[in-house]
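Data availability (excerpt). The following record was deposited with the supplementary files.
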Amino acid sequence: MHKLLKIFKVESNFQLAIVFFVFSITGSTALIVAGPFLEAAGIQKESIDPIFFWPLRIVIIFPIYQVLLIIIGTLVGQRHYFWQFEKRFLSRLGIRFPEKKSDTL
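Predicted structure:
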């Protein structure tokens, strides 16, 4: 269990449970929200070839997930943790944020 705490950079088992909860809720919610989002854009599963639909859906899910992760993390009181997580994740994709001394984990 200590290895998981270290990997996820959390201080307690309770915080680890919250992190797992947020990740699971965010993933499920992103999948649910992507459908209506595509429909609002006029893209339905039946209207285009599955070879184009599924990659498009995955591309749409990605930013939805990122935004929902911050929102849901904030709702459970872990905004700082998930904001730091997002900054680390996005920096691996080449998106950088200005560093502040108070922003480090």
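Summary of structural features: Residues 2-92 form one domain.
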